Prior knowledge:
This protein is mainly alpha-helical and 74 residues long.
Amino acid sequence: MTCVFDYSKIISGVYAKGLSYGDVARTLGISERAYSLKMSNRAEFTQQEIDVLAIDILEIPPERIPEYFFTPLV
């Protein structure tokens, strides 16, 4: 069984920065559709995408990355 992750902190962080799905997707170098699939747990983030989203876009400290990307949805 595939683990489904809770991306609510990512959604909140993106919203707080006033960014759209399109803005984030462009920064990640992927389509809006690809970003949407990742945020709905139908595709996985690459390590590079996690780094860009966490550090460059959301500006979260590296030690907090797991709580944004790897918290199981319950």
